[in-house]
Design brief:
Pfam families: UbiA. Interacts with CtaA. This is Protoheme IX farnesyltransferase. Its EC number is 2.5.1.141. The termini are far apart. This protein has helices at about 15-20, 25-40, 45-70, 75-80, 95-115, 120-140, 145-150, 150-155, 155-165, 170-195, 195-200, 205-210, 215-235, 240-265, 265-270, 275-305. The longest helix is centred in the last third of the chain and has 29 residues, at about 275-305. With about 300 residues, the protein is mostly helical. About 75% of the residues lie in helices and about 0% in strands.
Length: about 300
Amino acid sequence: MIDTHAYDGAPEAEFRDYVALLKPRVMSLVVFTAFVGLWVAPVAVHPFVAFCSVLFIALGGGASGALNMWYDADIDAVMRRTQKRPIPSGRVTGGEALGLGLGLTVIAVMMLGLAANWFAAGFLAFTIFFYVVIYTIWLKRWTPQNIVIGGAAGAFPPMIGWACATGGISIESLLMFALIFFWTPPHFWALALFMKEDYHKAGVPMLTVTHGRAVTRRHIFGYTLVLAPFAIWLGLTPVGGPVYLAVAVVLNALFILGGWRVMRRNEDAAIADDYAVEKRVFKLSLYYLFLHFLALLVQHWVGTW
């Protein structure tokens, strides 16, 4: 299923191609949420230890990306938005991606254990396993709930950051997990509404493919309703406060309103304006998560001052 040999006549790989294997845009979210989880924790961490911890969490995220691209090379070759990735385009072989992913996994886990603590390192190892084995290899091609259950992998980084500082788990880190976990389905389903054909061609059982767009629209709205209480609850914990709560209330009101508008749309109207509403909600979802975690940072700095 996975070709580990370079394509004949394929361009020679450049450094940026190996960087692309690490999914740098996804890694940036991993780095930011892990940093916030570490920095707002109630235990002071030396800046150098914090830097090393976030660096090795980032390497672990990059390892997950490389292993995901290795296994999903056949799907990526079919989907329009992924055809130019390093493996489908022939610039990097599957074997190279596999080797890079496994090597970075070992380095990231071992070095995080030495830099922070072994609980955090074990948590990072479990996260990589969950993303690659549970989500990529098993859930993604098997169930329309792939993005729901598999979304846990993307929600673990702030908990790992928190664990780097405290050596454990708390209600605050669990709520940061919940914020990302319940945000993931409406974020990806909004994308899937105007990218359905890609998933259909690749045989990925996204909810839009298995149950249709109308059901997907209802699920998006439902998850925005489920998400909001967890976002507000986080603001009532010791890491929250008035700054965070103000941001959370506004963003969740906008997200619920966007989900409502998506649910009320029919396909004829969506096609007529090229899914303009769905694209706006998807864009809002990108700002939603970033601004929540930025608000946690600002709240922490305000509280410290």
